[in-house]
Amino acid sequence: MLFPNPQRQSDGTNQVDSAAYANAYYAAIDPNNERDTLAKFKAKNGFGTTGAGITEETIIIGDQRDLGYGRKMTARRDSNTGNIAFVVENYMVGGYGGYSSLSLQAAIVGENKWHLGTNAIEFSAVESGTSNPTPNSVKFVKLYTYDPITGARLTAANLDGRGNKALPTICITCHGGRGDPLTPSGLFPRISNSASGARGDVGAQLHGFEPASFDFSTLSGYTRAALEGKIKTINQMVLCAHNLPNGTSTPTGYSEDSCRRVANPNEYQGAAAAHLKNIYGGNGLPNSSSETTDSYVPSSWATAGQVDLYKKTVTQACRVCHGIRGTGNQSDINFEEFTAFDGYADRIKAHVIDRGNMPLAKLVYDKYWSTPDMYNTMANYLSGKGYADATLKPGRAVADPGPDRVVKTLTPTLSAGMSLYSTSYSWTVTSVQSGQTASLSSSTAANPILTVSGAGTYTVQLVTANASSTSTAKTLTIKVDPALAWDPAALRFNPDIRTILQQASGGNCVSCHVSGQNVSTTSGVPPIYYNDFDRAGTGNATDVTNRNWLYTEVRGRINFTDIVASPLLRKPSGNHHNGGLRSGFNTSAALGDAARTDYDKFVAWILNGAPE
Description:
The protein is α+β, with helices and mostly antiparallel strands. Helix content is 25%, strand content 13%. It has helices at residues 19-29, 38-45, 101-109, 169-172, 224-241, 271-279, 299-303, 307-322, 338-343, 345-355, 362-370, 372-384, 493-502, 544-555, 567-570, 597-607, and strands at 54-62, 70-78, 83-91, 115-124, 140-146, 156-157, 165-166, 405-407, 424-431, 438-440, 450-452, 456-465, 474-480. The strands form four sheets. A five-stranded antiparallel sheet has the order 1-2-3-4-5, sandwiched between helices. Strands 8-13-12-9 form a four-stranded mixed sheet. Strand 12 and strand 13 form a beta hairpin. The protein is globular, with a radius of gyration of 25 Å. The two termini are 29 Å apart. The relative contact order is 0.09.
């Protein structure tokens, strides 16, 4: 339930899985501790009270597709303020695992023995506090979890039986949010392209409610027929929290859209709203009951001939989370368009087949790999993209010697540390520069030293294994250049990497990644700024504190468990980057070529631990 890139710190810990992260989040979204208990949350949001403009509905359903809980869910909207709030009691009978209808029954009777905890969500503007001293009125989604017995607010919870993990991370991974690093002073970060500009606004969204994915009781009052009207009312609340796409005139002429804010060009554009409206027949929501959502296929998928892939796999295992991800600058991650999904084929293969961290929720993951129709359909698609091992399952040994690199030393150290599910290692020198020699200090060590006699390009091969499998061989190319003008081992963020990010020509990152842009009117505002500006309010944009803060933000764009997947490397190389391919990051150029010098420097810096 953690992010694939969980902000690994220099000491090896994951910052997003810490009490400090949770406490910083709560301090940002509830600066005056008006919601630090469930009772206070309910009181703050007026649960149980009535009045003009107030709508409150309660449903009890079996969440058989997502977390496997029986869920008692009360939703409330105040049309006078536009605020929306949810309280969700979660029940699970027995141990974690597949869904059981007994959990639904426990929710109906309110059996405390099986009450795991209570989630709460609020869609509102943030109050003034230390983290947000002058907030605006833009509403955003905030997430809370409370103890089932005491009602105290929790900093961690066990959602899948694999131990406690910190909040809000385990919620925002599926609610569309971002897990950026804390500031050096421990404050929760701001997202530069959000409309609210508030700390604690992680870009999370509300999920729509798909009756076709729920289990319903046969007891009077809890059947699907009895709850359909209430679910539709709740879905209309959810729609109010989804933005209208930028450029849309408001109102649109349909009453369900009159409560929706128009997105700025850089934030989430409300893509899931079209699907949610489709459940009820489209604009105007003409159907009183929902259609079978599992039959819905976006037109681009049908045009591409990928109906089976969408219905059997994406609908079942991907859509719930991915449908509410992305921004106006990178909407492809929501998978609404087949071309977007197709553009991520390499990463889908890495996450699903190799790394085994997608689908991210354990119940969905287990169902995926126990349903041949789901994983075979995905395997057929990936096989068609040229991946010969797409029919295999995660858990097998996968060799990963890291990215190709340029070095200055004649004795570079190799590493198999990013290899997956591996307990033994086998290295082989496979090519040597003409007239030179190369040898390994050990062919079976995880971190052997390669010793070469002189300059040139060398390749080594890594094969890993575990008790039940042997990996395919992976090749690492190393260019050794003792006369290299820059020393890979000596690179530091200040000034080396920062200078590349801030250079006025060439890569020119700061033509876009620069503070002071109007996020409401300027398209292409990025999630992180690289220029020196007053991040901490010290009055000095270039002081050490600000540069340390910039380093923290940039380091947060590195995935130390899968280096080549780091946004810091992929984005300027032209992968889903609004600015396209940047000078110095052309990875199709030969290793050490001037066209990829900046990329090679970034790789060397990361391999050295990304020191400040």
